[in-house]
Structures are given as C-alpha cells and as structure tokens.
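Lab intake sheet, docking and co-folding queue.

SAMPLE TYPE: protein with bound small molecule
LIGAND NAME: adenosine-5'-triphosphate
LIGAND FORMAT: SMILES
REQUESTED OUTPUT: full 3D complex as structure tokens
PRIORITY: normal
SUBMITTED BY: R.K., bench team

The fields below were copied directly from the construct record.
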Amino acid sequence: MTEHVIEIQNLSRRFGKKQALSEVNLSVPEGCVFGLVGENGAGKTTMLKHVLGFLKPQQGVVRVFGLDPVADPPGVLGRIGHLSENRDLPTWMSIRELFEFTRAFYPKWDPVYAEELRNMFELTLNQKVPTLSRGQKARAGLLLALAHRPPLLVLDEPSSGLDPVVRKDILDAIIRTVVDEGRTVLFSSHLLDEVQRVSDQIAILDQGRILLASPLDQVLVSHYQLTVSFPEPQPYFPQLTGALTWSGSGREWKIVCNGQKKELEAELEAMHCEILEQGAPTLEEIFVARMKSVERSSAN
Ligand SMILES: Nc1ncnc2c1ncn2[C@@H]1O[C@H](COP(=O)(O)OP(=O)(O)OP(=O)(O)O)[C@@H](O)[C@H]1O
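RESULT FIELD (auto-filled):
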C-alpha cells in the first residue's frame, strides 16, 4: 500500500465572508511530485499553509507524516523544506549568515550540498538579502529549503522570479533529484507546462474546491481534442457529450473533451459531422477547458 505523506480530509477555511477552502480532500503519496494548480485566489497558498501548520483547520483534518502540523510543529516542520510565496528571508543577513542561521534549526543540514547549490545558483556568500534580485531571492529560498535534505518539500510558486533557463535547468534537476532520493514534493504553480513536465500527480483547485485530483497521465489520457467539420455552418456549437470547450465558427470547430469518446463519436456521426483531426491537449489546454466549463455551468 502506498504511504501518504500528506492526508487532507474535508478541510474548509473561511476568511470573513470569503470561503477560501471548501471540503478539500487530498492525499499526497510518498516519493511523488504533486503539482497544485488553480487560478489566482483559488486557495493554493491557504492549503499549503494548513500543511505547514501555519493555519489551523476550521473544519476537517490535516495530517503530515501522520502528525497534526498545528499540534506538533517541530515534528512536522523539521521534516519539511519550505519555500514561501513571499520568499520571507531575514533582510539584515548576508547569504553566509542565512546559511548559519538556517543550519542551526536543522541537524541534517548538509554543508557540502548547500555549497553545491550555492554554486549552481550563482550566489555569493557576502551578498546581503536586500541587494538580492527577485530571482536571486527565489534561488536563496530554494537553497535553504533543500540543503537539510527534507523528506518533504513544500514550494509555493517556486518558479516565480526565475528566468526561463534557470527555471528549466535548476528546478527540473532539483525536483527529479529529490524524488529519485525517495522524497516528496508538493508545489503550486501557474506554469502549466512546467507542472506537466515535472509532476506525477496534480490537483486543480477552483474557488477553494478540488475540481480534479489525479495522476497526471490519467488526466492527459482522459482528455482529447478534436477538429470537426459539420455538413452545414453552425450558428452556435451543439450540445455534445463530454465536450468541455469549443472554438471555431461556421462548419469547422475545435473541441476539447473529457471521457465518453464513443458517445461523442456516435453523436457526431448522427449529425454527419466529420472528424478532421484528433489530438492530445496539453495540461494547459485541459486546465483552460475545465475552467471555462465550470464558468459556463455556474452561469447557467
Ligand atoms: N489572511 C487572509 N485574510 C483574508 N483573506 C485571505 C487571507 N488569505 C487568503 N485569503 C483569501 O482567500 C482566497 C484564497 O487565497 P490564496 O492565497 O490561498 O489563493 P492562491 O490560489 O494561492 O492565489 P494566488 O495564485 O494568487 O497566489 C483569496 O480570495 C484570498 O484573498
């Protein structure tokens, strides 16, 4: 049986009138890269804060390594490498002092690995935090999260502030290395191509609810894209089983669909509609299709 490093059951959180999380259920298995995606304000950071024990569940249960992160911060936080959304580095310190400061909290701090990462990230020991660029702060934050070799990494938008080359080379290398060593990564991102490249499992959060949580390969195979041609121009797209979104006009339309392929094909055949092209949508196309489909159903 797969061990779950994180178990979230029925988690809800409200800030005043804003329902930030609604009955969230989620399990993160050991050794996996778990990508959390969602539009701005979907609840990603709020969920990560519950995993870290920074927020107490108003409803529901959160367990990390089987422990309650609110009741046992040392037991949980000591085993997590965390990169916060704001990078929160003490402003009066140099990189050297940051190393020493962070090292004091983590008996498993690995100075050789820290130095290796520092060279990879091109950070200088004497550099002071306020003089660091946004990208350098992101790298310093990542370094501090990684250098004690934690069994769980929780990264809030790790790519934010990193330029594309650094993002691809460093982040992919780090995430894969961490996972090859049997550790677990939970990260949030707006960069769907990146999430698709590195994740084993994903969850889509929408307005505080889990819209979809699944192994990435299952998400990709259960969605498909068709370009179809109707015998007559269509003033609007007809109702079709499994169609999430469509674009086009007249006779030719492009559709992103979910499941129920046989039913959809039968419906198209009955309308004498020809399938011109079939393909696999990217995670980004699936995400957009899902979001538009949700918007449409809530507008109806
Ligand atoms: N401390 C807080 N007080 C009041 N509202 C909050 C607080 N923290 C979060 N919220 C609200 O809860 C909702 C979810 O916020 P959260 O930061 O979790 O979203 P997110 O998915 O991380 O967004 P983004 O991608 O923009 O970082 C938002 O509407 C946000 O305004």
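REVIEWER NOTE: The chain has ten helices and twelve strands.
SIGN-OFF: pending second check by T.M.
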